Amino acid sequence: MKVVLLAGGFGTRISEESQFKPKPMIEIGGMPILWHILKIYSYYGFNEFIICAGYKQEIIKEWFSNYFLNTCDVTFDFSRGNKLIVHNKYAEPWKVTVVDTGQNTMTGGRLKRVKEHIGGNTFLMTYGDGLSDVNIPASLAFHRHHGKLATMTAIQPDSRYGVIDFLENQVLAFREKSQADASWVNAGFMILEPEVLDYIEDDGVTFERDPMEHIARDGQLMCFKHDGFWQCMDTMRDREKLEKLWAEGSAPWKLWDKETRACPRVERVAAGI
């Protein structure tokens, strides 16, 4: 099952960093937050990724092109015809497709542009700036059980986001937060059937607005409630919070910590050693 990541926005609310790189490439613990998201999915056995890039998309491509080389030990032997010898030949079993979906394309348009890479199968989708310890296999089982077109993970942050109205687990509508709400909000980590792409008309469509609202009105959007950790990286304050959790060794999203699968060099870089 393929995982689609939305990674093309300008990241204007964290412009201190995003003026130099796309927001998903801003580092937590020495590695891009995008790497952390891939590691979450990889922990559960999902290793094929489609990255919807846009703003400064070449930086994402360059990082992946050098990933294997930069995370392993190498010998440059100039005495024997410029030979390159790679040691510790390990990398995650990832297949990563990076697609330039346009600099000004909205989230729905980005999904529509990678339709050919998704194919006709159920796929996973999330945002390139949010970390969580959500149980993805449990959400997938929930999705398969209800049999509708879309499942979104919902969380209750103490913050400022829009609110989901639902009946039991069926999403009915979206609205602004009120003081009376114990707010459930969209945390990404979605499971989608390919038919959801038919709700998207063009590049100017924001997926979280008309398409998702239309899917909800059709009774085809369900909510997987997650009461664990979730944190997006909208601002430098958010980044500092995530960095602190990582540095303290208490990052809840580091699900792979119990069974480390990464190349030791990757772990040393991520640990700042």
The average pLDDT value, as a whole number, equals 89
The CA-CA distance between the termini, in Å, is 34 Å
Strand content: 15-25%
Count of DSSP helices?
A: 9
**H/E series:** EHEEHEHEEEHHEEHEEEEEHEEHH
Count up the domains. 1
Which architecture would the CATH scheme give at its second level? Alpha-Beta Complex
CATH superfamily: Spore Coat Polysaccharide Biosynthesis Protein SpsA, Chain A
How does the major sheet shape up? 8 strands, mixed
Low-pLDDT segments = 260-273
User: What share of residues is helical?
Assistant: 25-40%
**Looking at the structure, what is the overall shape?**
globular
Q: What is the total tally of β strands?
A: 16
Q: Please give the radius of gyration in angstroms.
A: 19 Å
The CATH topology assignment is Spore Coat Polysaccharide Biosynthesis Protein SpsA, Chain A
Structural class: alpha/beta
CATH class placement: Alpha Beta
